[in-house]
Amino acid sequence: MENAVKLAPNLSQTMIGKLSLGARILQSGGVKNVFIQNFSVGERELLLKVCQCYLSTTAGPIAGLLFISTENIAFHSERSIKLTSPSGVRRVPYKVLIPLRRISRADPTENVVRPTEKYIHIVTEDNSEFWFMGFVSYRKAFKCLQGAISQCKVNHPR
Questions:
Q1: Directed axis angle between helix 31-38 and helix 11-28, to 10°?
Q2: For 22-59, what is each residue's pLDDT tens digit?
Q3: Cα torsion angle, 47, 48, 53, 57, sign
Q4: Which domain of life is it from (predicted)?
Q5: Segment holding 65, helix H or strand E
Q6: 122 and 103 in contact (C-beta within 8 Å)?
Q7: Residues contacting 14, CB < 8 A, separation 6+
């Protein structure tokens, strides 16, 4: 594994999460269908790559899938999170959708103490920051993301 990040309490919990995710992907008819069912996908939008990774949040890292398309990057959590509202507690997936044209920069970053832990740091035009980590193939994910951002800037110049 190119970028090992231990984020689950134990191996069995990690494996159960991965098997559960795999079952949901199969039930949906594949990762492309998961993307289409969970995000507003444009008619000409093409899915380029799907990566298992973690999104860093204030509550801690959340495991899920990062979808890189010709128009957006999108993250969908493996497990639902609890939201409390006046009408009660609901479980919903944690989702993030970032249009590529709104990304100011995407930087490769590594943990200073543990250089094998690599991150993709994304900053949007409104200075929102997103940190993705724990990729099985960090280099491939970052290269695909860079290519998608570059191509989007060519297709949608300011």
A1: 80
A2: 556 555 556 788 888 889 888 899 999 999 999 999 98
A3: negative
A4: Eukaryota
A5: strand 62-69
A6: yes
A7: 8
